[in-house]
């Protein structure tokens, strides 16, 4: 049995004929030395150009002392290095942010590129199955760029031809552990290129105190917390409907109260009215004086929702053919209907008639209220369809800590968990995890991690005093 096979395949051959050796003759092509040298030279020049382009700061730091030593001798170089180090230390101390932006993060990115990603790239790619070993050659996705900021490494990679984003999202765990990070989030940079985000620390691990009440009246977006990258998290409430889903103790209350807090100046100037539905009687009742209308009893809740529908329809009649968007005014304020634990009304309510009235009113509001200035902000513990059949009528959803991984996609939409919305991994310890959630912003399909500020009982009392016209609220 004679067979000519390339590379590694020979070792897998088994002869079925006794006493017959397997013969393997690799095809050898002699490459002229000049071509080999030209290829090496090309690779060297291209590699150097890439190095200069990607890591100018790190390269300057390494190359300048060598050049100075060569040109001026080591005495001058040591003196220059000492002076430069002192100047950089002074810069870093006096203006940390500009130093970090222009020098610090670039140096760190270079170091992480060399020490973490380049060093482990091949084994991690092969073991995780993202690289391929074919006919004796490794085909690896390309590591293109590493960028660092104060909380994460952002690694840009070029996928192998034929790979899909799902191949990577399925292996996020392998990548995180392979590169020694707590997690890995995968997002598309552009066709064929992905951005992998490896957090180095958790900027949301510490509770955030209540955001100061804004100075000017506004209907939003309301600043209610921070995003993982340290930027303010602003939630749009006017012109949309928001559903917040999270297990018990996940901090839904901090979202409701932070929104109310951010709208206080507008409430005081009559541009916003808040209608509160509090079937649990434990959350919103604490600041009852803040609300233009309040209901706790299921029958009263249904009446209140129907009253909101009536306002909505009356506005729609007036606006028809005249305008298409709502501008909040004292005569036509933005009405935000806040419902704490909406499942009490839509699923756990034993009176079928009341349940049907509530669901119908909520469905009408969420399908038609947006354009006429009636919004719904609802919180619920269990996002299953049986519990909240109209959850898809809410354009914006927030997933706080959830009990099961399947619930993440129920809230944020298909594939959200694969793209890194690990709401089922949020810590159940209130200091670490309450108020932490995942949202999808309009600007990107990728979920981002946010934390709402914690509005304490004292803050709510101060808000009541502020709304009554006294005090600064804080
Ligand atoms: N944003 C936050 N930051 C830090 N701690 C918070 C935050 N929000 C809530 N907590 C803490 O977590 C506890 C539970 O919060 P909260 O009652 O708002 O949760 P919940 O989701 O509304 O729970 P339930 O559905 O049972 O009412 C609070 O008593 C508070 O100590």
UniProtKB/TrEMBL annotation:
InterPro entries: FtsK/SpoIIIE/SftA, FtsK_dom, P-loop_NTPase
Residue ranges of the TM segments: 27-45, 57-75
PROSITE patterns in the record: FTSK (PS50901)
UniProt KW keywords: ATP-binding, Membrane, Nucleotide-binding, Transmembrane, Transmembrane helix
Superkingdom of the organism of origin: Bacteria
Keyword Cytoplasm: no
Domain called FtsK: residue spans: 230-409
PANTHER family: DNA TRANSLOCASE FTSK, SPORULATION PROTEIN RELATED
Protein name listed in UniProt: S-DNA-T family DNA segregation ATPase FtsK/SpoIIIE
Source species of the chain: Thermopolyspora flexuosa
Higher taxonomy: Bacteria, Bacillati, Actinomycetota, Actinomycetes, Streptosporangiales
